Amino acid sequence: MKLKNYTATLEEKMSEFDMWVTPSLGEIRDTPQFKINLDQLKSGFDLLASITEKFVDCEHCSASSLALNTLSHITEKDVIEAQNVLDSICNVLLLATGKTDNNLKCQYPLLLRNNLKITHYPQKKPSGAWIVKPLPRTLLLTDVTKLIVQLSEKADFQEAFIKSYFQLIVSDEIYAKQLWSLGSAYISQKAIGNADSLISSIVIFQSRGSITATQGHIPEAILRNYLSDWGLASGSDYNTQDVEIGELLEGIVADSQIKRRKYDFVIPYQSRKSGNKIFIQGQFYAGDSGSVSHKVVDQTDSTREVTLAKFPEAVFIEFLDGAGYYASLNGDLRRMLAKQTTKDFIQLRTAPLKLRRELQDIQFLTTLEVEHAIIRTSGNKKEEVKNILNAEGYSTEEIEIAVENAVKHGLIFNNENNTLNFNNDRIEIIRKYCILDIIANHGEPVPNDKGTGFLCVAGYGLFWGLPQDKVIEISLYEIPKLDELWNTKIAPFNDIQWLLENGFILSK
Asked: Are the CB atoms for 332 and 289 separated by under 8 Å?
């Protein structure tokens, strides 16, 4: 339903950010990738234990001993299993020595060329014929392990490659002792069921960079889920991947650097050829990423300038969240929100209300707003729905487009008697957003001296809300059909609990 407008001051925006901030996206150890990395590392330790007699002594952890025993271990295995074994073992060796594949990929070809005088190596083609290939300038770990396995019929080359690669990693006795010490600890802790505790912290440090990079896309995925809940079509109403500015600038001159910059969201994306568009760039910083954040702030003006040349009515929304913006990057947050071209900002918890309000401001009608209009009619008549939406500022053309698209995607049914009905699968979403909107539209500032029992929403200053007992009462008064949609007595309380658990509202 139509949400009341509100223009916040910069200080109100800064205070709102603090109130609704999502500090982090969860612990690294809770991510699926962490579990994968942990299992791979445990597999590597178990494989090394089998070829070192459970890390019986330091001599078994020397490069030459490891290489020969590994070759013996993979002799009877198929190609895929043999390479998996080698990959797992090498990952543990890198972990124990602190060396990195990024460095080894450059150093290993030089070692082969300079120390072993190997400039070419044999490779077996799918046809079974052997050819001679020149040694490349870089060899990743996976390239090396694949090459070693493929050389099973060329024993001299296979032994030379694995011995030299292991020697590059476990290059002296100190590194062998590091492996032996870590492996011995793993065996002893595994015996008492504590292996995961021993290596979990190691995996966190080893995986932090890659997992954090992956987590950076989580807020975008969450926002796309919201858009789907509102009935927007992926790939049409909103983009499913970042959009380079250059893709949008037909007929506009801009330098190549600016053209390569991206927007995380453009709404509506391709479903509307005319009218306003909302351009969103998102940054989630759970910690201090100063150099990246400063660069984003500095590039914003030039990015928006060229966008406005093509879309003069463009609306710029910032999607900013995370403890980093609360703490060390708070100055960057202030500068971003203070820009004249920044219409507003959203966070993970405030987007369900504030972004919908911005979509309403550009008269982009979503399925959810149509559904809210349907349940406010007396008999679901299409004409009555249109009258409600016309009164909220939507053009007749926009209403027809929105209804047509909702029908096409099976979210709304256009019946023969000229009535509209929503899909029963969407009843809960409709109800929950009704409650959210009722608090926004009927709320008022909650004084600091008031007691508990208030439900508050974002976007209207600090502590804007209603007493909890009033929320259901007003909802039923404004939308009598909710009494039918709440099919049990506890349904409205379950909806409120869902809004609380998802952070869309908070209690005071």
From this structure: no
pLDDT of res. 256: 74
Q: List, in sequence order, every residue forming a beta bridge with 308; answer none if it has no partner.
A: none
C-alpha to C-alpha distance for 179 and 387, rounded to whole angstroms: 74
In contact, 278 and 315? CB cutoff 8 Å: yes
pLDDT category, 26, cuts 50, 70, 90?
low
| Cα–Cα dist 414/423, whole Å | 11
Closest residue by Cα to residue 121 from 134, 130, 110: 134
**This prediction's pTM:** 0.72
Give the integer Cα–Cα distance in Å for 129 and 431. 68
Taking each helix axis from N to C terminus, what angle separates 63-74 and 155-169, rounded to the nearest 10 degrees? 140
Query: What are 428's strand-pairing partners?
Result: none
Q: 């980093």: which residue's tokens?
A: 324
> For residue range 29-88, what is the model confidence (pLDDT) as tens digits?
666 777 888 888 899 999 999 999 999 999 999 999 999 999 999 988 899 999 999 999
Q: Which CATH architecture has domain 365-422?
A: Orthogonal Bundle (1.10)
Residue 420: helix, strand or coil by DSSP?
A: strand
What ranges do the domains of the chain cover? 29-209, 218-347, 365-422
Please give the biggest Cα pair distance in the chain.
87
Element holding 40 (H helix, E strand): helix 32-51
CATH of 218-347, one of 2.30.29, 3.30.420, 3.40.1350, 1.10.3210: 3.40.1350
pLDDT digits (tens, 9 = 90+) for 136-146: 999 999 999 99
Question: Coil, helix or strand for 117?
Answer: coil
Give the helix/strand (H/E) hosting 466.
strand 464-467
